[in-house]
Amino acid sequence: MTAGGARTARSFAIVLIVHLAVLVLWQVAVDAFHVPKFILPSPLATVQTLGTASYAWGANTLVTAVEILGGFALGAFVGVALAVIFSWAPLLSLVLLPLFVTLNMIPKVALGPLFIVWFSYGIVPNILIAFSICFFPILLTTARGLREVEPDLLDLVKSLRGSRWTLFRKIQLPGSLPYVFSGMKVGAILAVAGAIVGEFIASERGLGYLMIQVQSSLDTPAMVMAVVLLTLLGVALYGLVLALERMFVVGDARQT
């Protein structure tokens, strides 16, 4: 095992131990102080809800996962594409970027009812809400990365009569990748929040919908389990972005 692999394994082990310690402390505290289940269920009581068929955990988790992944993928594509267009057309950036800043200031909860009116109930409006929340940081960080390229490199390519596409492919894109993935990591977190905002406003399926349904009966273990599954979805998406970053950014750095 290489030194880098050993460090990664050690870091993963530390993270795993910390999380397990929190779970053990949580279980011990609930048992020791006899905390009622409707206030704070123990980890064991929370996990036991997975055996209840009426919650349809698999179907609801799948719906929420589609909303999160769909909103994030759309946000990443539109954010990066707009950043590239703005880098090629500074006048367009001057005109449209302030408009995007203004639109981003609109509370996304306020947009939820409008999306329901425009697109009815279902997965689509929740994907769009997740997209509206996560795409802006991807746009900003990517645009910054495309701008912050060493001027000497740009002058060199231009002096060799390199085309705009060559300039973008050889210089701007590789140099902006750390910024792109930085924005995508923020977007991954926001996409989870966006999907749940949509499900809280109006939905017929999903983990957020399930939490609203069990809230009236004070079924706290089911609500906590829904939060845990949401967290796992967010961690999985964040881990996917980290893996892609390691593949494209760290891999390119090793090759050079």
UniProtKB/TrEMBL annotation:
InterPro entries: MetI-like, MetI-like_sf. Residues 61-242 form the ABC transmembrane type-1 domain. It is found in: Cell membrane. It comes from the Bacteria. GO terms for biological process: transmembrane transport. Gene3D superfamilies: MetI-like. This is NitT/TauT family transport system permease protein. GO terms for cellular component: plasma membrane. Its main location: membrane. The keyword Transit peptide does not apply. PANTHER family: ABC TRANSPORTER PERMEASE PROTEIN HI_0355-RELATED, ALKANE SULFONATE ABC TRANSPORTER-RELATED, MEMBRANE SUBUNIT. Signal peptide: none annotated. The lineage of its organism: Bacteria, Pseudomonadati, Pseudomonadota, Alphaproteobacteria, Hyphomicrobiales. Keywords: Cell membrane, Membrane, Transmembrane, Transmembrane helix, Transport. The keyword DNA-binding does not apply. The chain crosses the membrane at residues 12-35, 55-78, 85-106, 118-140, 179-202, 222-244.
